[in-house]
Amino acid sequence: MFADLINKIGGRIPVIKGINRAPDSISAINTNFDKILGYLRDFPRFSSRYLWSQDKIVGEGDVNVIWGLLDDIWYWKHNKTSPYDPAASVLPTTQKQ
């Protein structure tokens, strides 16, 4: 589902290739999520909140993490900054002269 969503957002040409459409093991599911999260990590404006939560998504099936990742994808698609993005609350440092 995540790969299809990101490929639709990406346009006519699929941006995530090599997704196993019928994963029959946890290993295959993890490989799919490696590709999905790896693709999203390449975007500096994408919230890092759940980019490293693969174990919670695949292993635990944590619905809060899954919904949070979908929320982050929505904000990224609409070029907005998520209010939950940990990097959004970091203020730039000023140098004293």
Brief overview:
With 97 residues, the chain is mainly alpha-helical. Helices cover 47% and strands 0% of the residues.
Write the layout of secondary structure elements.
Blueprint: H1 2-10, H2 26-41, H3 54-59, H4 63-77
Give an overview in words:
By secondary structure, the chain is an all-alpha fold. The chain has 4 helices and no strands. It has helices at residues 2-10, 26-41, 54-59, 63-77. 47% of the residues lie in helices and 0% in strands. The longest helix has 16 residues, at 26-41. The radius of gyration is 15 Å and the shape is globular. It has one domain.
Keywords:
mainly alpha, 97 residues
Overall spatial form = globular
Q: State which percent range the strand residues make up.
A: under 5%
Largest sheet: none
Treating each run of at least 4 consecutive H or I residues as one helix, how many helices? 4
Number of strands: 0
- H/E series: HHHH
Radius of gyration: 15 Å
Task: Return the structural class.
Answer: mainly alpha
Into which percent range does the helicity of residues fall? Answer: 40-55%
What are the low-pLDDT stretches, counting only 5+ consecutive residues below 50?
none
Distance between the termini: 52 Å
Summed up, the domain count is 1
Q: What's the pLDDT, averaged over the residues?
A: 86
